[in-house]
Each structure stands twice: as C-alpha cells, then as structure tokens.
Amino acid sequence: LEKMTDLVAVWEVALSDGVHKIEFEHGTTSGKRVVYVDGKEEIRREWMFKLVGKETFTVGATKTKAAINIDAVSGFAYEYTLEINGKSLKQYMENRLKTTNTWILNLGGTDYRIVLEKDTMDVWCNGQKMETAGEFVEDGTETHFTVADHSCCIKAVSSGKRKEGIIHTLIVDNREIPEAVE
C-alpha cells in the first residue's frame, strides 16, 4: 500500500449525518490527484497535465456536493480550497450554525451526536435520520423520538425576540442537554 506522500490538505466537515474527513493528495510532479472521504478513495486521477482546476464529489449519506479548487499561488506553490454546496467551507459552516442545532451526549457509555435541521425539522442521530412524532403544545412544538430506549424531545419555543427567533432545546429523560459547538 502506497503511503499518502502527496497529501496536501485535510478538512473536517460537520454534516447532519456526522463529521466527515476529506483528504486530498496532489502530486505536482506526476499530476496525480486523489480525494478520500472518510478514508475511502472517491477520485483518483493519474498524469494530469493541468495542475490547477477543480475536483467535484459528494460527501455523506445526504450526498452533499463538494469541490476542491486547486489554484496556483506562485511558481510551484498551490492553494487548495474546499467548497460545500457551492460555498466556501467557512461560509457553509457559518450558514449551518443558523440552520441546524447539534447536541453531543453520552447514554449508557455510548456517544450520540443529535442534529436538528431547522428548515425541515429532520432529526439525525449518529448518521441515521430518526423517526419522529411532532406535536403542538401550549408554548410551541415538541418533536419526540427515541435513542437507545431513552425518550428524547426537542422543544421549540419562541424567544419573544425577532432577532433570536425560535429556541430549540433537547430534553433526554427529562434532562436538558446543552447545545454543542462544532
């Protein structure tokens, strides 16, 4: 097995189905380009005469669109930028903070990463889209689901402030779980 000697960039991307590792090899003498997602080879190109350009692929269970841009900076120096859904990784992650909530918790010795997609109200747990039941309650809505025989509920209540909007809280076994920062 050939070692990744031409590894030039590594990114970690938090999506609803998990945190994915993207690695990129660029052989500037051979013109080789290899993209790995979570350790699995997605793209391999040998003997590319054009050393700059773009490689497109998908990431995760949701087949999120991704692209690596290869730009010449000066002489034989190159810059590699990752785009997710057509946005720079930084823009994508900033937007994601507004559109999702993420909680990390440990139940019975197992770590769980729960993600709420606010636009669709889809709930993901460790890469699986969860079966949920939503209901209207006096002060907002509750989305119920189960993780490892534990009853879970995401409460959505208005903050009463227009700029803040709706506040989402995860409750597991009647205990509030603090939101994670990724």
TrEMBL record:
Query: What are the UniProt keywords, alphabetically?
Result: Apoptosis, Cytoplasm
Record family assignment: Belongs to the FAIM1 family.
Matching Gene3D superfamilies: 2.40.128.180
Q: Could you give one GO CC term from the UniProt record?
A: cytoplasm
> Which Gene Ontology terms describe the biological processes this protein takes part in?
apoptotic process; negative regulation of extrinsic apoptotic signaling pathway via death domain receptors
Pfam families in the record: FAIM1 (PF06905)
PANTHER family, per the entry: FAS APOPTOTIC INHIBITORY MOLECULE 1 (PTHR13088:SF3), FAS APOPTOTIC INHIBITORY MOLECULE FAIM (PTHR13088)
Please report the name of this protein according to its UniProt entry. Fas apoptotic inhibitory molecule 1
Compartments it resides in: Cytoplasm
What gene is this protein a product of? Faim
The coiled-coil regions, if any, are none
The residues forming the signal peptide are none
* Task performed by this protein: Plays a role as an inducible effector molecule that mediates Fas resistance produced by surface Ig engagement in B cells.
In terms of one coarse class, where is the protein primarily found?
cytoplasm
Output the superkingdom of the source species. Answer: Eukaryota
